[in-house]
Amino acid sequence: MYKVKTLSENGLSFIELQNSTKTTTAKICLEQGARLQELKFNDVYLIKEQPNFDYASSYASSILFPFASRIKDGKYRFHGADYQLNKNDAGKSALHGLVYDKKFDLFEPEEHQHCCFATFNYYEYELSEGFPFTYIISVTYTLFEDHLRMNVSVKNTDDKPFPFTLGWHPYFNCSDFKNSNLSFSSDKKVVFDKNLITKEVVAEKTPEVFNLEDKQLDDCFILNDNKVGFSTPDYKIEISQNSQENFLQLYTPKDVPVIAVEPMTGISDTFNNKIGIQVLEPGRTFSLNWNLKLIN
């Protein structure tokens, strides 16, 4: 029987999903945007907190909404009006959306023989200057023995439409970059300026096996399909999402044994360059699944 447990650590609230032997677990933090702090399959940690790698600067496993990555100068124009977001990226750009530090509420956890799940909700009632719209965002984590499914849904509770993209910012453990690789299909790469704002999209076909040895990454790719594989000496996984347009951001922080493998529905400065941008009409709901599977 799978179990859903409530924990409290260092003044933060957590929900832990686990199988009966506690060899497969997922740990979610309510106060940090319902992020996945830890993930373990078959006693192997895929995601785990790293020393001296603070969440406030790493955004590890954060849900990115209403935009992923950066908005240049925090400025954008939508339906004839100009907006100014908070420039939380060293005063240069708006970074990683608005819900990564919000407190989510636990809703309707369920325990079953072969899985368990919990839903986390955040209700935005305030009209911020940079994004003056109300919405509900829900994140449901469903844990199986070798599979984690995340469903994110956003409902526009305002009387006006708003623009959005969605992203997820997980860092996966990687103890041996020399013998690790990614696999994904792309023939277009995003070129950034010095502030990691999109300059252009160029034709560049990635190799079938994308080796990580000696690579320092902060790169974005437009995917031809919705799947990304990641293989290390410790585990092998496949990440997929069910969106129509699929983008992949890769980032390797210096001197930390992790890699960010980020599925997104848009790219840096989406609100301005319109690549991947979507519009959610009043009363409508958008839903997206991310699936993470352990490959034997």
Automatic annotation (TrEMBL):
Keyword tags: Calcium
Matches recorded under SUPFAM superfamilies: Galactose mutarotase-like
Named cofactor requirement(s): Ca(2+)
Gene Ontology annotations of biological process type: galactose catabolic process via UDP-galactose, Leloir pathway; glucose metabolic process
Species, as recorded: Polaribacter reichenbachii
Subunit structure comment from the entry: Monomer.
Protein name (record): Aldose epimerase
Lineage top rank: taxon: Bacteria
Pfam families per record: Aldose_epim
Signal peptide: none
One of the record's GO molecular function terms: carbohydrate binding
